[in-house]
Amino acid sequence: MNIGAAAAASGVSAKMIRYYEANGLIPAADRSEAGYRLYSDRDVHTLRFIRRARDFGFSMAEIADLISLWRDERRASADVRRIALSHVEDLEARAAALLAMSRTLRHLASCCHGDGRPDCPILDDLAGDVLPGAPLRRAARDVSHDGV
């Protein structure tokens, strides 16, 4: 099947199929006499695997490792589990960092009068313009570095 059909069958755009091919996640496509890429059902199955792995946020390197394990019938499931749990740790760390940022921004917004005056503690914090020792700056730092 051509790249358009492979894209439709896998849910991966033609552009991303070319990207995955260029980066070795799928083998180089066979070519028709006219030079068009041709993909097999196996390629489409691999593209679906990649799409699902990307949905879970795995990196390209992790996906390459997972594809290798997927194709290896003598794989140890412990290797797959190790990759998955390492990714879970990364996701949880990113979630914690996002929560800390959210709390800091919520605190800064609560300190903003939200009226017609030009004074804005949010912009001051982003610019680092709050005078040293000012309570708002200290409070914002405490919220953003509390490790939660």
UniProtKB/TrEMBL annotation:
Q: Which GO terms describe its cellular component?
A: cytoplasm
- Gene3D superfamilies registered for this protein in UniProt: 1.10.1660.10
Q: In what residue span(s) does the HTH merR-type domain sit?
A: 4-26
The cross-references to Pfam families, in alphabetical order and at most eight, read:
MerR, MerR-DNA-bind
One GO biological process term is: positive regulation of DNA-templated transcription
Q: Where is this gene product found? A: Cytoplasm
Q: Where are the transmembrane segments?
A: none
Q: Kindly state which keywords UniProt assigns to this record, in alphabetical order.
A: Cytoplasm, DNA-binding, Transcription, Transcription regulation
Q: State the superkingdom.
A: Bacteria
State the protein's name: Cu(I)-responsive transcriptional regulator
